[in-house]
Amino acid sequence: MAVSPLAPSQIVALPVIDGVTFATAAAGVRYAGRTDVMLAVLAPGSAIAGVFTRSATRSANVLDCQAKLGGDPAGGAAIIVNSGNSNAFTGRQGDGSVAAICQAVASVLNIEQARVFTASTGVIGEPLPHDRIVAKVDELAANQSASGLNAAAQAIMTTDTFPKGACVTVEIGGKPVKIAGIAKGSGMIAPDMATMLVYIFTDALIGQEALQDLVSGLNEKTFNCITVDSDTSTSDTLLMGATGASGVDVTGNADFSDALHRVMLDLAHQVVRDGEGATKFVTVNVTSARDDDDARKVALAIANSPLVKTAIAGEDPNWGRVVMAVGKSGAVADRDKLCIRFGDILVAENGWVAASYTEEAGATYMKQPELAITVDMGLATGTSTVWTCDLTHGYIQINADYRS
Asked: What are phi and psi of 94, to 5 degrees?
């Protein structure tokens, strides 16, 4: 599969995060000849926070992780992830697969099963061959490396065309604190928590409750503001581990919050840039709506509209489709107060096409790989920003034969 034209020019080299090690293995869950399982092992005392899909058909792994958050951090912790099979809609057999994997990891690492977090991503409705994963646990435990985060990013990929990683080092109280994260996601991406699999690690010192509040809040500004195709996965999971190895307490620290926001937003944008078949990265801004909720409704209506997304793919400045999306969003709108821009180009205002607008200017703008659509509702102070991509023939090709 060709790498997305919107991919970063180079994959970032992720740093060592003291207090966590990584390992990968080729278990043959679905793919042959590639790594498809990753293990992260966190030091005793590490705080674990997470957000998960709100899908009514979420996987056994998600349900198990949700139940385990907030447990005693005294012992070590582990995260084990497989690609190729989502272990979703697999009934009691799926629960058994999670239990078997957790038991194997806990036994080899000598930690409590309640501190083993799992995730599976891939095809829905097929039993997870967990015995293949269990058979690799000894190998994973033996091959742990502090510098293995980049390899872990590759092991969790499915239809992704490039591994996704981001990192920041922030100085707090004169001491460096590191944050690094990886993500997978390309299709079945829509805001309803993390919209993918995401794993973030830091050597900062912070309690579980404070970390959970921080992650949940920043999630609403990052992963819950992206959409590729409006479909929410059964397996979406974001887990963050704070090892405390730096000794720097970041509870309530604004600099740490800002740094974590940058990492999470970077990863979220990379998922959009790897949207299945994507050729355009699109920022949708909505301003002056009745309130923030209405602004979000409008932004998502535009970002998820197949007609808007296909027009963008065809480099057609069809602003009428933006008007349509605003109208169907369910938000309060006044036709004669709407103002629409493509980048800096004023397209429409006062209920009609702008006198200064030319089709040639719009068509030229649409040829760029990164676009911005801005809608000023002209009503109040509500705002929202959502990131999306175009919808091309490539998306159909990938998803029409995904299981073959």
From this structure: -65, -40
